[in-house]
Amino acid sequence: MIAKPYTTTGKIMGITAIILAGGESRRMGKDKRTLTLGNRSFLRAVYDTMETFTQDIIISYSSPLQKGEKLNAINVYDEIKGAGPLAGLISSLKAAKNETVAFAPVDAPAISPELYIYMINALESFDAVIPKKGNYIEPLIAVYKREEFLNACEKTLYAGYKHVRKAVERLEKVRYVDVEEFRQFDRNLLCFENVNTPQDYSRLKNILG
Question: 175-187 pLDDT, tens per residue?
Answer without folding.
Answer: 999 999 999 999 9
